[in-house]
Amino acid sequence: MDWLLALVLGYALGSVPFGLLLARAAGKGDIRSIGSGNIGATNVMRAGGKWLAAAVLLLDAGKGFLAVWLASIWWPDAVTPVAAPAAIGAVFGHCFPVWLGFKGGKGVATTLGVCFGLSWPIGLAYAAMWLAMLALTRISSVGGISAVVAAPIAAAATGRGELVPDLVIIALIVLLMHRENIARLRAGTEPKVGKKA
After folding, report:
1. Which of 166, 157, 159, 156 is nearest to 81 (CA)?
2. How far, in Å, CA of 106 to CA of 91, rounded?
3. pLDDT tens, residue by residue, 54-93
4. Could you tell me which of 81, 175, 170, 159 has the C-alpha nearest to residue 122?
5. Which of 45, 50, 143, 154 falls 20 to 30 Å from 29 in CA-CA distance?
């Protein structure tokens, strides 16, 4: 049952909607009624600027890292079997939070946190791919999609093959959340960072 408890722990932490909470605290109203309607850092930047978006990004990543770290501390004799479900739970909780009618963010920042929690080389590869593709294209979704696809490849390349199935599950969740972005990318209508959604 440890893996199930870790999954629930991850979901509980991941479902905290920092984008919504910080936007309201900053007097920006309900972030879900602005721009793309997403509660993630990219949409928060449209409403509240770079600093507020950076805070949301760090907190969303932090809750993913915390879920994996707590699972590793509480179940030290079974780190991978419980840390990986905690990671999946955190991303799933961010994307489908019960508090918001299961309509949350897209999971890119939270996945960054869980990658660093699972293995720092995977986290570095994820961050590098995200930043590189974002800098190259200036399209937020391209950076996030590229990063989640790179994560299981990085796990295999760094000798952490046992994490590949879990990172593939996380990648599928994030790709599912980006299905509209993918459709706009194919149509050539996906907005760049700094432009109206």
Report:
1. 166
2. 9
3. 999 999 999 999 999 999 998 877 667 889 999 999 999 9
4. 159
5. 143
